[in-house]
Request: fold
Amino acid sequence: MSGRLLIVSNRLPVTVSASEKGGRPQVRASVGGLATGLRTPHEQSKGLWLGWPGDMSTLDEAGRDEVRRQLESRRLVSVELSPEEVTAYYDRIANSVLWPVCHDRLDQLPLRVEGWDVYERVNARFADAVAAVWRPGDRVWVHDYHLLRVPALIRERIPNARIGFFLHIPFPTPEIFFALARRRWLVTGMLGADLIGFHTRRHRGHFAAAVHRLLGADAHGNEFDFRGRRVRVGVFPMGIDAKDFAMRAESEAVHTEAVRLRRNDTGPLLVGIDRLDYSKGIPRRLLAVEQLLVKHPEWRERIRFLQIAVPSREGVRAYRQVRDEVESLVGRINGMYAVPTWAPIHYVHRGISRSLLIGLYRAADVMVVTPVRDGMNLVAKEFVAARTDDGGVLVLSEFAGAAEELSEALIVNPYDVDETAEAMHTALVMPPNERAQRMRALRAHVTTHDVARWANEFLDALGA
Ligand code: ADQ
Reply:
């Protein structure tokens, strides 16, 4: 396809680290889903990627210049933000207001919301950065809730630009979204795009209803007429690099990890892997493990539930609270059921290496993915892609976007602790042939609907 692709996301797909003893700072590629998925279109179109490189305040001017040079050689454009801007735009608005509202958690809203002016200013900075590099024929693809105003702000600067926007998190029901004082302004920001993408039909439906009620605009099919322009809304469920996960899953390093994880262990292993976020449903998942031990005491001293919780957004109070809650539940449940030679819950609050991550996917008898709300959830898909041995059972929340696609998983309501516990039991006793049959069907879907397909479908629709 002709024209460059200009990708705009809060973070650039790299990690910048200051080197010790005043040497050159390091710029390394990140391994996240977005970084992987957009790498190919970014390279093929010879386009640019615009975003925040992370905190550079520990670098001196020479170090910062060095980083800019390294970014430039990867065709990355940095939008630098001051620590005050990051606090207001990222911590306060994006992560303490937009994130909870989009995950149905009005109870997590601060009593008084401040920082919209900084959010607008930072979004305008991203739009300015796009306007500075844009050339006729370029396509712009803006990502996620940090940048809801950017499509309209680019449109003000470049009226005929072709702009796509993708929301990676849920768009909540209008009743919840309307709690935001700036609801009309936010939706108008998104409508600056020509194409707006969501993971699921449900999120798209909520958005269409919100637009109708706020602006009186009606969707004709999947299009709005808005201020003399046509805005399309579409469903594009994001996938993963399934081939890469499958390949790594069969590597020697992962095999060693998986064997090590199972050593000294005769009983079944259940695994949960999440960022430590209140949307991921970890406390109720722990209660479900407890309920499993109560209702099915035959599993006592046999099963092991391993929860990896990656530290996340620790500057936000709600995240410190959920951490305390999880740690106290782990302590209480282990205190109650452990014996000197066995404990039901293994809790790790730390990031882990990729080979251990995939080793865990391979070693798990049951993968428990039970968010109370999640845009998509890539962990569920990564687990499936890694199970080229047709083993393992996926227990999946109906409130993860992934549930719209992964119907052969055991689908549960994560608010129903008893049902989740029963699903864990069903997974543990599932006959091997049923397990393999379900896993093959899941893997066929995840493999064919991978992240490259997601990016291509969105970009084809944007180009159409
Ligand atoms: P997240 O909320 O971060 O993403 P998710 O989709 O599960 O959630 O992606 C997490 C990623 O982090 C996965 O690729 C996983 O491998 C990695 N990861 C998790 N735990 C890890 C650990 N301990 N060590 C190393 N890596 C770990 C947001 C939305 C989701 C949506 C994605 C993509 O909240 O709903 O699916 O964006 O659109």
User: Anything to note?
Assistant: The CA atoms of residues 293 and 300 lie 6 Å apart.
